[in-house]
Design goal:
The protein is an alpha/beta fold. It folds into two domains: 175 residues, Ribosomal Protein S5, domain 2; 311 residues, P-loop containing nucleotide triphosphate hydrolases (Rossmann fold, 3-Layer(aba) Sandwich), CATH 3.40.50.300. The protein is 38% helix and 17% strand. The strands form six sheets. It has a five-stranded parallel β-sheet with strand order 12-15-18-11-19. Helix 1 crosses helix 2, helix 17 crosses helix 20 and helix 20 crosses helix 21. The longest helix has 18 residues. The protein is elongated. The termini are far apart. Bound molecules: zinc ion (ZN). Zinc ion (ZN) binds next to loops.
Length: 506
């Protein structure tokens, strides 16, 4: 046999596509010819594969080796093709039976010593293999947990190329990996730890119930980060499909913990203000890496000290947040990732970040004003809730007395409110108040006129834009849902207006 074929998987974003790997050996000057647009990384992979085969005790054929990867039009990025290339070369050379690899899908990078190394994106790759009707995949041991999340596919875990060769020769079968029981969820930070800050606590509860973006402003120590970190705990756990979706993103990002391969809870991503656009949204060379925004899909993206982020970087968030997905283009192709994240921004009142009224603060009033307007504009316009948190004084600590409500109690109310909203919106294609289009909101769910008096007055005197008006309506519905009311009353509208107009005019 001088011709052999096997399968691997290429990735574009979180979508896998089957790649047919063909190897032909012919007489002629020994060497390797690659056809099918392989990127530079795949070219390097030939050198790795040769070293791995030799160091695994195999023989590298001294023939003219033609390697074809098809479909040719698909960019093949990353090092995950190594194992399939090695298997196809060995099969073409007769070192392993060609029939043993013909239907097999192999994913993994080879070390020069013949070890099989974990790669990014194995979950979406195995999903693609399953969809294409393949029954068996060989993956690196380090990726076996995520691969086994896919139902209906036999997952074989490989630690070395020698093990794979022994398996293909029928001598020592590779261990089958099955989906294990999920480790119990480690409890996240609890809202019961947040003393005082009734407005802040209320704001995260409302944000969780309606899926609203949130802006927290206040001096250091006011608890902005504490509150933001507790928002994911208030969101409902991810169902199986959502969990696989989020896990696939983390698989491609390379941020999946091997001991708990399925992400079942909404995630919390908090990039530093020095983060680049690539770190925030996605990018990198080779296999495009999703950024913090995509890793926060169905979870929370927290930007602490938001005014410190370069404006250009923040502006790249606008469209993806609106659309729920982001497309990253590189020379080697483009990738689209979902990014339906809930945004929480936090800001200090002034650039020196001293506590309000602190004598150490030397910022002039214009400096403070300028700092607070750094965020103004289109991004801020997408934020329904804006809350000013006061400094937590010692007196407030001592007065707090009764223990604050824990996450479990608040999450229960959030779940009820979300269920009420989903029932009301069942025929609209959305399930959260924050997602209801403005026109639909005004046509179908305008609260009774008397309840709207306050917000109409704010609109008339220019304190509220039309978009702002819609946002107040959305939050009013969330407040009504939380209170178990079928329609928002004047109090709900007034509270929503308060949660919107804090600090900056809308
Ligand atoms: Zn200052």
């Amino acid at each position: 046999m001088t011709l052999a074929r096997t399968w691997s998987v290429g990735l574009a974003g979180v979508h896998g596509a089957m790649v047919d790997v063909e190897v032909d050996l012919s007489a002629g000057v020994p060497g390797v010819v690659l056809v099918g647009l392989p990127d530079a990384v795949v070219r390097q992979s030939v050198d790795r594969v040769r070293a791995a085969v030799v160091n695994a005790g195999g023989r590298w054929p001294l023939r003219r080796i033609t390697i074809g990867l098809s479909p040719a039009a698909m960019p093949k990025q990353g090092s995950g093709f190594d194992l399939a290339l090695a298997a196809a070369v060995l099969a073409a050379d007769g070192a392993v039976p060609a029939a043993s690899v013909e239907q097999l899908v192999l994913i993994g990078e080879l070390g020069l010593d013949g070890s099989v190394r974990a790669v990014r994106g194995v979950l979406p790759a195995v999903l693609a293999a399953s969809r294409a009707g393949h029954a068996t995949v060989v993956v690196p041991t380090g990726n076996a947990g995520e691969a086994a999340l896919v139902e209906g596919v036999e997952v074989l875990a490989a630690g070395t190329l020698a093990e794979v060769v022994a398996h293909l020769r029928g001598r020592a079968p590779l261990p089958r990996h099955t989906r294990g029981a999920l480790p119990p969820d480690a409890p996240g930070p609890d809202l019961g730890d947040v003393v005082g800050q009734p407005i802040g606590r209320r704001a995260v509860e409302v944000a969780a119930a309606g899926g609203h973006h949130l802006f927290l402003s206040g001096p250091p120590g006011a608890g902005k980060t504490m509150l933001a970190e507790r928002l994911p705990g208030l969101l409902p756990p991810l169902d199986e499909q959502a969990a696989l979706e989020v896990t696939a993103i983390h698989s491609v990002a390379g941020t999946l913990p091997p001991e708990s391969p399925l992400v079942t809870r909404p995630t919390f991503e908090a990039p530093h203000h020095s983060a680049t656009t690539a770190a925030l949204v996605g990018g990198g060379s080779g296999l495009i890496r999703p950024g913090a925004l995509c890793r926060a899909h169905r979870g929370v993206l927290f930007l602490d000290e938001a005014p410190e982020f370069p404006r250009a970087v923040l502006d790249t968030l606008r469209q993806p947040l609106e659309r729920g997905s982001v497309t990253i283009s590189r020379a080697g192709g483009s990738a689209t990732f979902p990014c339906r994240a809930q945004l929480v921004l936090a800001a200090n009142p002034c650039p020196c970040a001293s506590a309000a009224g602190d004598t150490a603060c030397t910022c002039t009033p214009p400096e403070r004003r300028r700092y607070q307007t750094r965020l103004s504009g289109p991004l801020l316009d997408r934020i329904d809730l804006r809350v000013d948190l006061p400094a937590v004084t010692r007196a407030a600590w001592l007065e707090a007395g009764t223990a604050p409500e824990p996450t479990a109690a608040v999450a229960g109310r959030v779940a009820q409110a979300r269920a009420a909203a989903a029932a009301r919106l069942h025929d609209t294609g959305v399930s959260l108040n924050s997602q209801v289009p403005g026109r639909l909101l005004r046509e179908r769910w305008s609260p009774p006129r008397p309840a709207l008096r306050l917000v109409e007055r704010a609109l008339e005197r220019g304190a509220l834009s039309v978009r702002g008006y819609d946002r107040v309506l959305r939050v009013s519905w969330t407040l009504a849902d939380l209170a178990g009311r079928t329609v928002p009353g004047g109090d709900d509208v007034a509270e929503a207006l308060g949660l919107r107009l804090q600090r900056t005019a809308a």
